[in-house]
């Protein structure tokens, strides 16, 4: 592991100067950190543009700078509440929705929010709809397709403008068919309302028919709006650098004024300095590096509150790519012991060997301190559709050895391989999982070699989407509360994570499509059970165990805890910055 020394005098001075700048800009010089939330994490921030936000590191900031039409009611993941919309009506058998927008709302630029901003925001999402955004599921609802607009020639400007439009100051959505999950999709942070006047001024798409095709599929990660955001959220951006993001309370926020004036998000790659800062009271919230670190170093420490046994609504696994794209680390590119071919994992026995070589019980013990259970499907038990009766994969070196001996007609066992795999830098859980797998694979045959590389989060997202990773940890937090959001994402041939496994199964695709087309809960549950069983037999992923959510915060931080926790929030505490305060 790369070692980074704890924060020294220079780093602490930089932190103090950053906080002072944040305080001075908000008119509260000299308050120190009493009115500042300090968060330390390992990941970088890929974007601040809602139109392409699709990762938790970006989402936790965007959800505080921007707002959506609807939000979740308290800690519920099924009940929705008004946010930028005050009321809505469902008409035409669920094919039309009319939203009344909140009045008196201002953007950070000072512009007033109008229906035109909401219209622009959704049209922009439909037009860009990049592969690394969550706009595929809003496009499915409004256009009947999840494909990028530049890949589907049937998408026209007329279809886009018919799908979302303003009727005076009422926002109207028209769907090609009923979608029971549509309202929940609108609560996703990527569907936030952006300041259209500001966006156009800083160089974004101008929202017109004349230019829409030029904006189709445009990469928004480093967009002008990512550099200069303007939302309606309770906090506005002060500064963003490679190592920190600072925000301050928005004085003209339409809702209740935030209790904390400033927020500082710091990128601290290694766990040790994050923990040191946290125990010293210099950070209020940190990415801990996993349950084991919390138990060994943080529980029962002075000033530390551990919030544990919260619902686990995420799913995680290790993807096994059956079609590694050009640019991947294939070594020789052959089954000659010096690399792997691009289709190495297309042999089901190779996949079965890797699955049987992963020691789930040891992972639960080492990473999760004994908490959690083996899973049979990349769907949380907290969601409908999970069938506990489907058999889980077992750690069994003999099964793994036999599978590898069969794989590729015996060539894998005879010649061996060198496989290069990646995991997210700074994630102790990811690193431990991959190291456990490496150790067990290499123990089977001295000719087997697995090389591991830690990569930045933004780099992992890009390479995963490009399909160039041979094998990588993969996880999913729900966009909205429906099992399809997991099942289609992980297992469909057109699913968001398909580039990570590079494969399709016609039977699974048929079951997924049938489940998406019915509101019969019993039938959907039966279909998901069949998908789980077939996916297990095909060994499409190494499935990680469930892991009850746990996080820590300093004891002077109020508003973070089980009562306010909502697992569909991207933030560490499951709540928004505006709901936090310090005593």
UniProtKB/TrEMBL annotation:
Residues 79-497 form the Solute-binding protein family domain. GO terms for cellular component: ATP-binding cassette (ABC) transporter complex; periplasmic space. InterPro entries: Peptide/Ni-bd (IPR030678), SBP_5 (IPR039424), SBP_5_CS (IPR023765), SBP_5_dom (IPR000914). PROSITE patterns: PROKAR_LIPOPROTEIN, SBP_BACTERIAL_5. Keywords: Signal. It comes from the Bacteria. Gene3D superfamilies: Dipeptide-binding Protein, Domain 3, Periplasmic binding protein-like II. One of its GO terms (molecular function) is peptide transmembrane transporter activity. Residues 1-21 form the signal peptide. One of its GO terms (biological process) is peptide transport. CDD domains: PBP2_NikA_DppA_OppA_like_7. Belongs to the bacterial solute-binding protein 5 family. This is ABC transporter substrate-binding protein. It comes from Deinococcus arboris.
């Amino acid at each position: 592991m790369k070692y980074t020394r704890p924060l020294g005098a220079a780093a602490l001075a930089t932190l103090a100067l950053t906080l002072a700048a944040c305080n001075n800009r908000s008119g509260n010089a000299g308050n120190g950190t009493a009115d500042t939330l300090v968060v330390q994490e390992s990941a970088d921030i890929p974007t601040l543009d809602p139109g392409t936000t699709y990762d938790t590191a970006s989402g936790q900031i965007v959800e505080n700078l921007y707002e959506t039409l609807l939000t979740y009611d308290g800690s519920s993941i099924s009940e929705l509440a008004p946010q930028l919309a005050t009321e809505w009506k469902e008409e035409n058998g669920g094919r039309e929705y009319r939203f009344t927008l909140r009045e008196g709302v201002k953007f950070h630029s000072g512009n007033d929010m109008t229906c035109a901003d909401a219209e622009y925001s959704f049209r922009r999402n439909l037009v860009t709809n990049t592969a690394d955004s969550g706009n595929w599921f809003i496009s499915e609802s409004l256009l009947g397709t999840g494909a990028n607009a530049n890949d589907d020639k049937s998408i026209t400007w007329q279809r886009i403008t018919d799908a979302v439009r303003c009727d005076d100051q009422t926002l109207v959505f028209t769907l090609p068919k009923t979608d029971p999950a549509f309202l929940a999709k609108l609560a996703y942070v990527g569907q936030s309302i952006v300041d259209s006047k500001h966006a156009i001024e800083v160089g974004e798409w101008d929202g017109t028919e004349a230019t829409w095709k030029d904006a189709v599929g445009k990469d928004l990660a480093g967009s002008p709006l990512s550099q200069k955001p303007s939302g309606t959220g309770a906090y506005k951006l002060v500064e963003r650098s490679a190592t920190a993001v600072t925000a301050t309370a928005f004085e003209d926020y339409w809702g209740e004024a935030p209790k904390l004036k400033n927020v500082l998000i710091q990128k601290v790659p290694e766990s040790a300095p994050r923990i040191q800062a946290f125990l010293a009271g210099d950070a209020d919230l940190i990415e801990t590096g996993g349950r084991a670190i919390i138990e060994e170093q943080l529980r029962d420490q002075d000033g530390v509150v551990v919030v544990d046994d919260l619902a686990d609504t995420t799913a995680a696994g290790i993807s096994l790519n059956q079609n590694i794209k050009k640019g991947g680390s294939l070594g020789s590119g052959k089954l000659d012991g010096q690399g792997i071919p691009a289709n190495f994992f297309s042999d089901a026995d190779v996949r079965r060997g890797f699955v049987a070589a992963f020691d789930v019980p040891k992972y639960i013990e080492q990473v999760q301190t004994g908490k959690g259970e083996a899973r049979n499907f990349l769907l949380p038990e907290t969601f409908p559709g999970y069938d506990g009766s489907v058999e889980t994969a077992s750690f069994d070196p003999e099964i793994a050895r036999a599978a590898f001996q069969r794989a590729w007609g015996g060539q894998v066992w005879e010649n061996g391989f060198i496989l290069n795999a990646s995991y997210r830098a700074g994630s102790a859980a990811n690193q431990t999982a991959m190291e456990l797998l490496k150790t067990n694979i290499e123990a089977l045959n001295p000719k087997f070699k697995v090389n591991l590389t830690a990569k930045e989060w933004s780099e992992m997202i890009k390479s995963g989407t490009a399909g160039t990773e041979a094998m990588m940890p993969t996880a999913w937090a729900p966009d909205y509360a429906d099992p399809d959001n997991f099942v289609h994402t992980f297992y469909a041939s057109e699913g968001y994570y398909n580039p990570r496994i590079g494969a399709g199964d016609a039977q699974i695709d048929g079951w997924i499509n049938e489940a998406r087309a019915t509101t019969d809960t019993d039938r959907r549950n039966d279909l998901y059970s069949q998908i789980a069983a077939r996916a297990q037999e095909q060994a499409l992923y190494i499935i990680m165990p469930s892991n009850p959510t746990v996080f820590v915060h300093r004891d002077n931080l109020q508003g973070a805890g089980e009562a306010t926790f909502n697992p569909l929030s991207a933030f560490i505490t499951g709540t928004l910055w505006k709901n936090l305060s310090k005593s």
